[in-house]
Every structure is written in structure tokens, then in C-alpha cells.
Write a structure and sequence with these properties.
The strands form five sheets. Strands 18-17-16-21-20-19 form a six-stranded antiparallel sheet. It is α+β, with helices and mostly antiparallel strands. The protein is globular, with a radius of gyration of 26 Å. The chain has three domains: about 140 residues, Rossmann fold (3-Layer(aba) Sandwich), CATH 3.40.50.2300; about 100 residues, Winged helix-like DNA-binding domain superfamily/Winged helix DNA-binding domain (Arc Repressor Mutant, subunit A, Orthogonal Bundle), CATH 1.10.10.10; about 160 residues, GAF domain (Beta-Lactamase). The protein is about 35% helix and about 20% strand. It has 14 helices and 21 strands.
């Protein structure tokens, strides 16, 4: 069957209505934002393509509205359809303040204006498109790239500091922190490698996109100093970014990585107070159980309800970290952890401070510091959430959820799992008193 095309009046552009309309569709898990000043025929082409491809479309008439829609509703693609250079420039700037999603410009502009739009953050410029088929191919290519590299993490949270990766926003104790694009990129890089020293040349290569290390050293140090100044908080005015002598810089506080909650997991009912009911049921079931039995119950329920692909409860005792209960882990991992590991080798359980909850999206970023993590990575595990079990003001164990997905838990599920850890914490047996020697 040949393609049938409908020509857009006064443009010569055609919309694919036959075979290509349903072939090779690219799925989107967000919206497509169309920003148009009302005078572009490209808008008609895009509306029809979105309808044919099943892409949810949101239309706006200003740059600020485009930026807001793209960040508040998680855009998979933003398209600016206009032949007006100021409108295009303002919209690209507003969108790039809000999101890093793919951005295409459809319009006929002079070379200088096209260059400014691309330099300002546009990913593709499609002037004088012959027909809708070519436009569709370009947009699908952008969406495939977005799908391959789509950040499943939305929030980086460390104490009072919260970074919204999709909105490219940062706030400290609820107050917005004004960061330039480079300052923001430096902060995100260090937070994504929390508790690890990042070499200065690595920061320059990743943020400035150059290997001319010596030429950017002073600029990088000045930029990092600015970020530290903006993040100073508390009576002592301390910031979590520390310099590591002879190496580079480190974000020294633990970081929770969370998604936006847009993905609903099978077996997890967030409506009708479903999680609250589940928590009450679990509290009732744990009431008369000893710690070991309670730990086994928690890991069974957590895996059965799809909170994680593998769940484990650990206890710290007599200088060892012991695996109390687990479900879903490979046999190789269970054999390795079976006899316990020394507390100073706590990276086998969790690579950071055992007193703090931490969540990351991919254990591959932790390197090869721990045998247990290498085993889990080899069996297809990626993200994990660790929550300490606290008693007497210190960590005496931990609850850890592993997933084969690179999408971490959202804030609601993270709080739910933290509440479960709290229930387990009260079941920890009392430690025997230290016997003092008598004369």
C-alpha cells in the first residue's frame, strides 16, 4: 500500500496518512509540548503527527508557558513552531531553564538566528521541511535518544537541599537557590557521586566538555567556590562540598535519589489510602514477632508487593554485619554474606555511612569497591534503597531494597519503606550490658 498524504494549505507540506502513519511508532512516557505564536503552518503538521502517533500534546502560546508545562508535566519533547526569531529565542531559553528534554525548532529563520537557537539549547532545527515524513523521522530520532538516556531520577535530596533534575531547580530549606547553568551542572555531578572524591580534571571534562584541563583549572575552582557559598547553611555556615587535597572535590553528605512517582508499580495501590492500610496491617502482623521473624516477614511482603526485586535485613552485632533475612538475591550473594562481614567492610552492605538513608539509581556507579555489589551487578541489579535500623541513637542494622530497574523509588514509596524500617527498629533486641571488671 502506498502512502497517502494530505497537503497543508499554503505550505506544500504533507501529512502522512497511510502506511508510515502507523509504522515504527516511538512510545513517549510524557507529553509533547508545542509552543507556537499562531502563525506557523508547522503547528498543523505537528498536531496531525501527534494524533497519528498517539503522543499526548499540550499547546502553549508563550515561552514561559512552555517551560512550565515541560517541567511540571514531564515533557518527552518540546517543539517550537515559529518563524519569529525573538519568540524562538525566548522559548528556547525558558525551556532550557526548566528541563533537559529534547527540543526541536520548526521554522524558517536566518542562519544567525538558527545558530543562536542551537547555542541556547535547541537540539535540532528543521527549516523548510519537505513533508511530514521527514519531520516525523527527525522527531522520532530525538525521542529515541531521549528514551535511551531518559533520567529516571528526578530529585536529588540531601538534608534540606533538594535538586529537581527535570526542572533544573535547586532549593535549600524551601528557599530557591539561584544557580547558573554551569554551577548547577557542577552541583549535580558532585551529588551524583556523593561521598566520593571527584578529580578536578573529571569535573572540567564533564561540565565544561573539554579536555584542555590546564586552561580551565582556575575557572573551575572559582565556580565550585561559588556553589559552596550558595549552599552554606546553619549557624556554622557549612556546605556539603569539601575540597580533597591533591584530588578534587567531594559532596560529603548522603544523597537520596528519587523518581517523580509517575510510574505505578504492579501491586502498589497508592489511592484510597492503600499504603497507609498496608502499613497498619504490617504493624499488626509484627506486633508479637521477634526481630528475626519480623525481618523474614518484612522481606517476604516487600518482594511479594513489588517494592523491590530483592530485599534484605541486616544486623550489626559483635563487630559483624549479619544477613538476618533476605529474598530475591542470587545464591552466590547469600553464600558470600552468610558468615557476616566485618563492620569496617560495610561497603559490602552499603557504601556510605550506615547511619544515613541513601538511594541511588545504578550500583555500577559505585565502582568495584565491594564484592557483594559486583555480584549483584553481574546478576542484573541496578538501583537500591538503604534505610538504617536505629536504636539508642545509632544504626544497629539496615533494610535494603534492590531493583533491576534503574528507576529509584519515588518519595511516597521511600517514606513508606522508611516507616517499615522504623517498625523493624523497635523489634531490635536489647544489647547485653557491658560487664565491668571488678577488683
Amino acid at each position: 500500500m502506498t502512502d497517502a498524504r494530505r497537503t497543508i494549505p499554503n505550505t506544500g507540506h504533507a501529512v502522512v496518512t497511510g502506511r508510515l502513519a502507523g509504522a515504527g511508532k516511538v512510545r513517549v512516557d510524557g507529553i509533547v509540548v508545542l509552543a507556537s505564536d499562531g502563525g506557523s503552518p508547522y503547528a498543523d503538521v505537528l498536531r496531525t503527527l501527534c494524533d497519528q502517533q498517539g503522543w499526548p500534546l499540550v499547546e502553549v502560546a508563550t515561552g514561559e508557558a512552555a517551560g512550565w508545562s515541560a517541567s511540571s508535566r514531564k515533557a518527552s519533547l518540546v517543539v517550537v513552531a515559529s518563524d519569529d526569531a525573538p519568540f524562538v529565542g525566548d522559548t528556547v531559553s525558558a525551556v532550557r531553564r526548566s528541563t533537559a528534554c529534547p527540543l526541536a525548532v520548526l521554522g524558517d529563520l536566518p542562519v544567525a538566528d538558527r545558530t543562536r537557537a542551537l547555542a541556547g539549547g535547541a537540539d535540532a532545527f528543521l527549516p523548510s521541511v519537505a513533508d511530514a515524513e521527514e519531520m516525523l523521522v527527525h522527531l522520532q530520532a530525538l525521542l529515541r535518544r531521549s528514551e535511551a538516556g531518559d533520567p529516571t531520577v528526578r530529585y536529588l535530596i540531601s538534608g534540606d537541599l533538594e535538586v529537581d533534575l527535570w526542572g533544573r531547580r535547586c532549593q535549600l530549606a524551601g528557599t530557591p537557590v539561584p544557580l547558573s547553568r554551569t554551577e548547577y551542572d557542577v552541583l549535580v555531578l558532585l551529588m551524583r557521586h556523593a561521598r566520593r572524591a571527584v578529580r578536578l580534571e573529571t569535573i572540567i571534562q564533564e561540565v565544561w566538555r573539554t579536555r584542555a584541563y590546564q586552561l580551565q583549572t582556575n575557572a573551575a575552582r572559582i565556580m565550585i567556590s561559588r556553589v559552596r557559598t550558595r549552599l552554606r547553611s546553619g549557624a556554622e555556615g557549612t556546605a556539603p562540598i569539601k575540597s580533597v587535597r591533591g584530588v578534587g572535590y567531594e559532596f560529603s553528605a548522603p544523597v537520596l535519589e528519587m523518581d517523580d512517582g509517575s510510574v505505578r508499580r504492579p501491586g502498589v495501590e497508592l489511592g484510597r489510602l492503600g499504603l497507609a492500610s498496608s502499613l497498619l496491617s504490617m504493624a499488626s502482623a509484627l506486633r508479637d514477632r521477634a526481630f528475626e521473624d519480623a525481618a523474614r516477614y518484612v522481606v517476604d511482603v516487600a518482594v511479594a508487593d513489588n517494592h523491590g526485586d530483592a530485599v534484605a535485613v541486616f544486623r550489626s552485632r559483635r563487630g559483624l554485619i549479619e544477613l538476618v533475612a533476605e529474598r530475591g538475591h542470587p545464591e552466590e550473594y547469600c553464600r558470600f554474606m552468610g558468615s557476616g562481614v566485618r563492620e569496617r567492610g560495610r561497603a559490602e552492605v552499603h557504601p556510605d555511612n550506615l547511619d544515613q538513608p541513601v538511594q541511588i539509581d545504578d550500583i555500577a556507579r559505585l565502582g568495584s569497591r565491594a564484592t557483594s555489589l559486583r555480584i549483584l551487578a553481574a546478576h542484573g541489579f541496578h538501583s537500591y534503597l538503604y534505610i538504617p535500623l536505629l536504636a539508642d541513637g545509632r544504626a544497629r542494622g539496615g533494610l535494603r531494597l534492590m531493583s533491576r530497574s534503574r528507576r529509584p523509588l519515588d518519595p511516597v514509596m521511600t517514606m513508606f519503606c522508611s516507616a517499615i524500617a522504623g517498625l523493624l527498629s523497635v523489634k531490635l533486641p536489647a544489647e547485653p550490658p557491658v560487664m565491668l571488671a571488678t577488683s
